[in-house]
Each structure stands twice: as structure tokens, then as C-alpha cells.
Amino acid sequence: TSGLVNEFSNFTFGFSYNRSLPVTLVKFTGADQLSDAVLDWNITGFDNLRQTKVQYSKDGSNFTDLSVINATRPQYQFTYRHTNPGNGKHFYRIVLVDKAGKVIYSRTQLVQIGQMITYIDGILQNPVVGNRAIVLLQSAANQMVHVQLADLQGRILQNNKQQVVAGKSQVLVQLQAVAKGQYYLIVRTEDGVMKTLPVSFY
Which sign, positive or negative, has the C-alpha torsion 186, 187, 192, 195? Predict the structure, then answer.
């Protein structure tokens, strides 16, 4: 005959949490902030981390230590500011050393100090009234800017071009009669920057 078991035997199931996560670099970025190179990075597996190094190079090949950070308290987000390294190209990498002595290298991060880049900001006034649109941009050099008007299907309707000088510019796009509605302005610069801007004409 069978019966109901209403008692558990005295053994248990359990899980061990003694193993810590391996050290991993999740994110590493660098940027020019007021002529300083500011580096930010995130890690996982801090319990296994022994040491972090910030390394620097002028040529992208030969690196030296800028800072050595010992793992003394739990930390997963880090920031390092390289003060006034000077104008030009600067290369950085992060080195993680775990408690077993394993060394993990980040990719090389380039930070350019004091060098202007080309950036297409947008349209000064959108919706546009009339047939003139003004595109705001910053140019790294004197160059030609090409602007195309396209419909929502991507068909090119008009072409414009204008010379700009290095620095901030307003590109006046003089268009032929345009029916009211929504379009795209496709902006391209000679140094390879492109941006598609939605625009409405009323």
C-alpha cells in the first residue's frame, strides 16, 4: 500500500556564492573638456580586482603609467582627468589586474585636444517660412558644404552648395518654389561629415 509522506529527510540543497565575477571592463570613453582629457570607465567583478592603471601615450604605441589605483573599496565607475596635456592627439588605455595576476588591457582611446571638428548642428528655424532655410554648423576648415532637398521617399529635388570658413557658420539654403509639407535636408561637407535633417515648409 502507498501512503503520504509528511516528513522531509534531513538533507538540504544549497548553492555556493563564494565565486566572484571575473573582472571585466564594460565601458571606456574619453573626451576633451576645457583642454583636459577626461576618461570614464565602468567595470564589473570588483571583488576580483587588485589594481587599475591609467596609461598614456603620445604615439599610440609606447605607453607609460599616469595613475595606479589600488582596489581598496567597492567601486564600479571611475573617472580620471589628465590636466592640460597640450594640443594634439593623446592616446589612453586602461589596464586591469585581477587578484590572480591576470592583466586585461582596454582598447586605445584617442582624445584630441584643441582641434576643431566639423559638426552639423541643425536648422535655425524649423518649420521654415518661405523658401530659405538656414543650416547651423561648425566647420573644421574652409570647405564646400553641399545641401540637397529630398522628399520623404528619398528622391532628390534640389541641390545647393556654399563655401564656409573654419568655425561656426550659418549656411543659407536658397530653394526654388517648394510646396508646403515635410522634407529632408541632406547636408554633406568635404571632410566627410553628413547629416540628414527633417524640415517642414509652411
Answer: negative
> How far is CA 34 from its chain centroid?
17
The whole-number pLDDT of residue 138 equals 83
Are the C-beta atoms of 130 and 160 separated by less than 8 Å?
Answer: no
Residues of the chain with confidence (pLDDT) below 70 = 1-19
Please choose, from the candidates 57, 170, 143, 146, the residue with its C-alpha nearest in 3D space to the C-alpha of residue 108: 57
- Tell me the C-alpha distance between 103 and 50, whole Å: 10
Instruction: Say if CB 194 and CB 188 are below 8 A apart.
Output: yes
In three-state secondary structure terms, 14 is: coil
The distance from CA 180 to its chain's CA centroid, rounded to whole angstroms, is 36
With CA atoms as reference, report the closest residue to 141 among 91, 192, 178, 94. 192
Q: What is the pLDDT of residue 19?
A: 61
